[in-house]
Amino acid sequence: MTEPTPRRTPAGAAVLREDVTEAIRDAVFEELAAVGFARMSIEGIARRAGVGKTAVYRRWKSKLSLVLDLVGAFAAQGVPVPATGSLDGDVRALLEMASYALRHPIASQVIPDLLVEAARQPEIADAIRAALLDGQQGVMARIVREAVARGELPEDTDPAEALDLVVGPLYWRLVVVRTPLPEGYVDRLARAAVAALRA
Amino acid sequence: MTEPTPRRTPAGAAVLREDVTEAIRDAVFEELAAVGFARMSIEGIARRAGVGKTAVYRRWKSKLSLVLDLVGAFAAQGVPVPATGSLDGDVRALLEMASYALRHPIASQVIPDLLVEAARQPEIADAIRAALLDGQQGVMARIVREAVARGELPEDTDPAEALDLVVGPLYWRLVVVRTPLPEGYVDRLARAAVAALRA
């Protein structure tokens, strides 16, 4: 059986296969936004991608593996480690990156959707941990380590609690309260978070 | 047509009606935990409650109105306003209450589920705002007002940003990271949050 024809016209068979894969990935993303994980179906994804169901099942065994793939790709972009030379600068830089990342639909819509599923499916909990937390926890651990080395933070500063203090307020505002950030918000939050870390 | 028989045996018709209502409310709660909002159906609720679908539709027009009713009841419990006489004490008391409330399944599972739906259904966004935010924002506004009056906070302290700093880290830890609170966590967070508020 030949690959169903995707919407774009490819130059050759290899391109065709990649185009189908990309069309499916785009369709998953659009379906997640439109109907959410629970209601999403392989049929709906295939229809939106303009391919047959077999084309989807040949690549991914279930809608869960499709979504984990998407979240994994988002996580793989990685979180660059700020190295501004001061705790103030590093916290400010981490907040800038987090405020950008948390406005991405993967973070503001897809991950909260999956967090809810995670209570019922442990595989999802692990994928989210990898996508949302591991990167940020690693970055925060390094920021704390360097600040301790510079004498800016006490030696017993817990990196996980530091991450709560820095990223928690921003997550709450962007994902829960969902009001636009007022002018100067990230600056004020950076100052407040550094004071909290030093308390 | 008579009311379908609920699982418990009631003493009379009035009791019967209330029992059915309660059985349906319990069933909604259990269904939300088991399958989530998107997959939940009136059929499933009726089956779990041991009543007919008509018994549900006689009381609520849709699964949305059923869930909004449940969230509304949670919100109506209200958030007591701490009045300890100091900013430290009030923040500590608010965090104690929030850490209790955020561990309730309505806050840790049902509301995040509905937050995801809220992006697609504005009615849900309004109900969550009322259930999760209005109460806490009101309490925080009062804590800030009294702290300003005592000279503990600057006059231009924004209550919404204050709430981000106090509740955000706890929400992130309990609802996103989902690891148990380490010993002394609420105390450390209260101290850090007060330092953040004063920064």
Report on the structure:
Chains A, B: This is TetR family transcriptional regulator. Chains A, B: Pfam families: TetR_C_11, TetR_N. Chains A, B: One of its GO terms (molecular function) is DNA-binding transcription factor activity. The structure is a homodimer. The longest helix of chain A has 28 residues, at about 120-150. With about 200 residues, chain A is mainly α. The first copy, chain A, has 9 helices and no strands. The first copy, chain A, is elongated, with a radius of gyration of 20 Å. Helix content of chain A is about 75%, strand content about 0%. The mean pLDDT of chain A is about 85. At the A-B interface, α1, α6, α7, α8 and α9 of A face α1, α6, α7, α8 and α9 of B.
What is the typical, i.e. mean, pLDDT of chain A? Answer: 86
Order of helices and strands of chain A: HHHHHHHHH
Major pleated sheet of chain A: none
Q: What would CATH call the architecture of the largest domain in chain A?
A: Orthogonal Bundle
- Provide the low-confidence segments of chain A as ranges: none
What is the helix tally of chain A? 9
Shape of chain A: elongated
Number of strands of chain A: 0
Quaternary structure classification: homodimer
Strand content of chain A: under 5%
Radius of gyration of chain A: 20 Å
Helix/strand-derived category of chain A reads mainly alpha
Protein name (chains A, B): TetR family transcriptional regulator
Domain HTH tetR-type (chains A, B): 18-78
Pfam families (chains A, B): TetR_C_11, TetR_N
DNA-binding region (chains A, B): 41-60
